[in-house]
Write a structure and sequence with these properties.
elongated; five-stranded antiparallel sheet; alpha+beta
Length: 169
């Protein structure tokens, strides 16, 4: 059984005007291109409430770093009160969206993801020595990278939403 350590857990909230499709694409592309994660969409659910939508999205991104380490990032989007609005931009009117967005990110460093050290008690003991003394600095380095990527993703998503809100006024 692989060892999983959650090393990052955070969220952001934003409310305002943004184009949902463009925001979705921005987040997906950023995670894929900037971190090299393989992204799978585990859930996409829409609920209509009058002229508003509620959207729940769950992604899992994974990346094998070495034969021993793997990154896993779980991203949850909750969009509430999403509706179409028309705004004036210069002399033209453009269609966009308005609503609130909450993004949660939980990042995990998975060690021994193939379970190579799980075959017997001696191997488990050797793994603990290996991790504590031989590759301790490598584990810390990988944790820092995963925390940095996760925090940067939330920062980029928040900046995108803030910028979109300002551009539309």
């Amino acid at each position: 059984m692989a060892e999983k350590d959650t090393i990052f857990s955070s969220k952001i909230k934003s409310k305002g005007i943004f184009t949902f499709d463009e925001f979705y694409r921005f987040c997906y592309d950023w995670l894929k291109d900037e971190t090299g994660l393989d992204i799978s969409e585990d859930k996409y659910a829409e609920k209509l409430k009058g002229d508003e939508k509620e959207i729940d999205i769950k992604w899992t991104g994974t990346k094998k770093v070495t034969d021993y380490f793997k990154f896993e990032i779980k991203v949850t989007f909750r969009i509430l009160g999403l509706k179409k609005v028309e705004i004036a931009k210069g002399n033209a009117k453009i269609e966009t969206n308005k609503g609130s967005v909450e993004i949660k990110v939980k990042s995990t460093l998975i060690r021994d993801y193939d379970g190579k050290f799980e075959k017997d008690a001696i191997r488990k003991f050797l793994r603990s020595i290996y991790e504590k003394w031989v590759i301790k600095a490598r584990i810390e380095q990988l944790e820092a990278k995963l925390i940095g990527d996760s925090d940067e993703f939330l920062g980029q998503a928040k900046a995108y939403l803030d910028l979109e809100g300002k551009k539309r006024h």
